[in-house]
Design brief:
about 375 residues; mainly alpha; Ribonucleotide Reductase, subunit A; globular; binds fe (ii) ion; binds zinc ion
Length: about 375
Amino acid sequence: MFETVASLAERAFRASAKYVFALNQSRLKVVTDPMYEAVAARLLPADTPLSPRLLAQSYDHNLFLEYRTRSRKLEYFIEDFDFSQAKPELLTPRQRQMMHTVALGETSGAAVADGFLRAFRTMPELAAFFGVWFVEELNHFLGYHLYLDRMGERWPAERGLEVAEVDFLPYADDPMEVAACNMYQELLGFLVYRRFASQVKDPFLANMLDRFAKDELRHYKFYQSVVARRIQQDPSFRRVVLKVFLKATSPYNQVSGGVRNVIDHLEAGAFYFRKPEFEYFTKQVEFLLGDPLEQVFANYFRGAIPPCTVCSHEAYQCSCESFDDGEPQPRRKPEWWKHVSPRVNGAPVDMPIEAWANQLRTAARGASPAARPAAAATASA
Ligand SMILES: [Fe+2]
Ligand SMILES: [Fe+2]
Ligand SMILES: [Zn+2]
């Protein structure tokens, strides 16, 4: 039994294991969490020394103040971006699909947020960070939907509402475990956005993705410090962190609208997880846990998605500078973002993505007179 569980967790991405994996944040986690905990304990013996780099760090009692100082210097507003410069016609079919996947991740903000704030409400440092984080994430949400609009693939209002309505099951009861989950997803967000940016030929989108990636990196670093400080106080917390990594905790599991969509989105993200990302990832694991667990994570990612069509290596071992071959991602439900469930009472949906997009476009046009003719032309199209 234990071997089955262990190999499932270690091969989380593969074949039938993908389905267990997609459900590991549902109510089924009562069953799966102890399995992940057992695997984490086996992979990380209690006497594993702490990483010397982690031991050498000293962290403030309140990391929010430092974050706030840094963040206010970097503040920006997405409506100041000139979306008339966007050239979605330069995107490959896969990149167009990926835009919907990243938009979904950022659309989940409102659904996941109450669980975060609830967990953090008695910890002023984390609660205060939550406020700034939420505002910063709003740029991503709006930016992606504004870009989808330029692509001519604006979501039906009901689709956005269905994401917002998800009764999101909190990642954990322990606020520090929630912090570890958020750390993990900010790390993945950073890596995937950065790599996605490197593949797109539209300079506007590449620039926007780079900007968002830097935000995610900053979020990651904040949570990483919170988690590392906790590990210094209690090295056994490393097993919780490892569990979170093995589960690949993310909002996608709950907001994608079914297991097949979850897997489609996770595979979409995995496409942008190449050798540099793998190396960065295991370096973070080494810092936090004292062991990079390279073999474990190599097994984990091996076979997750088809090999690179350019170099034939496993995706996570691919060093190609450019690896998008122009083919769409084979998705189980390709048109998922158009699908909406019938509303019970048929009441009109007030989900203002569309209105916001229009108003922000107008505001952006006002801020950038040079953009007027092109923006006006497409706005009436
Ligand atoms: Fe984000
Ligand atoms: Fe973030
Ligand atoms: Zn390659």
